[in-house]
From TrEMBL:
Domain of life: Bacteria
InterPro entries: Aldolase/citrate-lyase_domain, Citrate_lyase_beta/mcl1/mcl2, Pyrv/PenolPyrv_kinase-like_dom, Pyrv_kinase-like_dom_sf
Cofactor(s) the protein requires to work: Mg(2+)
Annotated protein name in UniProt: CoA ester lyase
Alphabetical keyword list: Lyase, Magnesium, Metal-binding
Entry-linked Pfam families: HpcH_HpaI
Keyword ATP-binding: no
Length: 291
């Protein structure tokens, strides 16, 4: 239970008001789809979005339902309570769980977990300074499998003005804080925020590569074309896999001690990096086989 949510690299948003896009999103090659009841849905359409998603999910086979998360409206909004009721019904039908928008309190996650049921995976979306302050508590809340970063809302809340064409250096400390909070709690690596330019694969590739270097385990997507670019950044290529095997073999031949490979010292941390590369490769191969 929750293994897919823990290991997934790509999370593709789909407006719940467009149920016809759900199957297309599932066929896009992404690991998980996030059906959105929050930002993508106008206030007047919230109830219709819940009904539309329920009908769309009922028509899907069980393996497809297990790849769906629902982004619910934040605590304190008029729609949060009804979202929890609808979420519980979806989870009982096999939907994986929820992305909890604007998460700021562990108590909120306790309530969502209680409402949705023990089988629901939760991904709190850190989108505010209060959410960042509570990151450790959020990461340790029940049924939380990953933290996710809503960097656009975070900038607004913090009064920041990052260069939209640059590297968002101003947000590097925030991203690292989420990586460290996840590690302290023993969670899978967190999920980085969206790249808003859907027609710029180079920007998506740069953003994804930065996320990977910083210790993120995946990224939110808003267009199917971003999925393959994201996977290319996170999935080890043939050269990386071959090198990881060489490191593993060299240490085995050295009896587990320190050795030298290509003029460089190889020790336990290098082996661990190699094993992580092989694990990510195995996940990517499983995705290809399963897709």
């Amino acid at each position: 239970m929750h293994d897919l949510a823990r290991q997934a690299t790509s999370f593709l948003f789909v407006p719940a008001t467009r149920p016809e896009r759900l199957a297309k999103a599932l066929d896009s090659g992404c690991d998980m789809v996030i059906a959105d009841w929050e930002d993508a849905v106008a206030p007047a359409d919230k109830a219709a979005a819940r009904d539309a998603l329920a009908q769309a999910v009922a028509a899907l086979p069980a393996p497809a339902r297990a790849r769906i998360l629902v982004r619910i409206n934040a605590e304190g909004t008029p729609w949060h309570g009804d979202d929890l009721t609808a979420l519980a019904a979806l989870v009982s039908q096999g939907v994986a769980g929820a992305v909890v928008s604007k998460a700021e309190r562990a108590q909120t996650l306790h309530a969502v977990a209680q409402a949705a049921g023990a089988q629901a995976a939760l991904l709190p979306l850190v989108e505010s300074v209060a959410g960042l302050d509570a990151a450790n508590a959020l990461a340790n809340a029940p049924q939380v499998v990953r933290l996710a970063f809503g960097h656009l809302d975070f900038q607004v809340d913090a009064g920041m003005a990052c260069d939209s064409e640059g590297t968002e250096d101003e947000l590097l400390p925030i991203r690292m804080a989420l990586v460290l909070a996840s590690r302290r709690a023993g969670l899978s690596a967190p999920v980085d925020g969206v790249t808003v330019d859907t027609r710029n694969p180079e920007r998506m590739a740069r953003d994804a590569a930065r996320a990977r270097r910083m210790g993120f385990g995946g990224k939110l997507c808003i267009h199917p074309a971003q999925v393959a670019v994201l996977h290319a950044a996170f999935d080890p290529d043939a050269a990386a896999v071959a090198q990881a095997h060489r490191v593993q073999q060299a240490l085995e031949e050295a009896g587990g001690g320190v050795c030298v490979l290509d003029g460089r010292m190889v020790d336990a941390p290098v082996l661990q990096q190699a094993l992580q590369t092989l694990a990510r490769h195995a996940w990517a191969q499983g995705r290809v086989a399963g897709g």
